[in-house]
Amino acid sequence: MLAAELAAAGTDVLSSLAGLVREPQPPDGRVRIGGFGGDTGMVSYLHAEGISAVVDATHPFAAVITASAARAAAQAGVPLLVLHRPEWELHPSWDAVADIRAAAGVVRSWPGESVFLTTGRHDLEAFAADDRHRFLVRTVDPPDGPVPPRVTLILDRGPYTVQGESALMRNHQVGLLVTKNSGGPMTAAKLQAARELGVRVVMVQRPPLPPGSQVVATVADAVQWSLGLSPCQPD
Predict the structure, then answer these.
(1) I need a surface site. Which of 36, 46, 115, 149 has the fewest CB within 10 A?
(2) Residue ranges of E strands in the chain
(3) Residue 22: domain span
(4) Is residue 126 domain-shared with residue 196, that is, in the same domain?
């Protein structure tokens, strides 16, 4: 959406995709896929392409990419903005944990059986040694690392509906949902379904942004910043 809005405003847009999703939905404008070869490679790329501004619109949990982009932009002398959609407001009944390892610890101590994991395929290793629980795992692409011994895998991509999420949890007798606080409406239906069904929720909190990050919460604000029309908020 951001690339489309910038292109519509007459801006030359180049989107960089990490290449972690096998069939990504390409944004408008020019697109490149893959890494840069570290901070030095990204600095060289920014100079070679004549990039005048960088908007980090990666997933809120892509901490390595965000940190690398911040370092490279600073070294290249290019202004950088972080587009971070708002977090989901924490519900009093949720278990908020700092990271995926802490979430796995909560699951290990949970006396129930069926767990719904929606944390992404790269975090399944944290649960791989748990042979007591039965896991329902939903990812966009198949996992390429260790997974729990008792696992049912669903390959799917949002948006999801409350009705669909409720039916999925009932069919698999889910008693515990583990997810990340990515925010946004695309995958929020599972949280409402969990509340209505009395499913316990373990919510992994976002990693901190690099110190001094300039942050906006909406595509409109990111467009205004890119066009030099609006200040942003320091993190």
Answers:
(1) 149
(2) 14-17, 30-33, 54-56, 80-83, 95-97, 114-118, 134-139, 151-155, 176-180, 200-204, 214-216, 233-234
(3) 2-86+207-234
(4) yes
Total number of domains in the chain? 2
Task: Give the domain CATH number at 164.
Answer: 3.40.50
Q: Among 29-43, 85-99, 187-201, whose mean pLDDT is lowest?
A: 29-43
Candidates 66, 54, 20; CA nearest to 208 is 66
- Both 127 and 78 in a single domain? no
Residues 143 and 167 in one domain: yes
**pLDDT tens-place string over residues 132-172:** 999 999 999 999 899 999 999 999 988 999 999 999 999 99
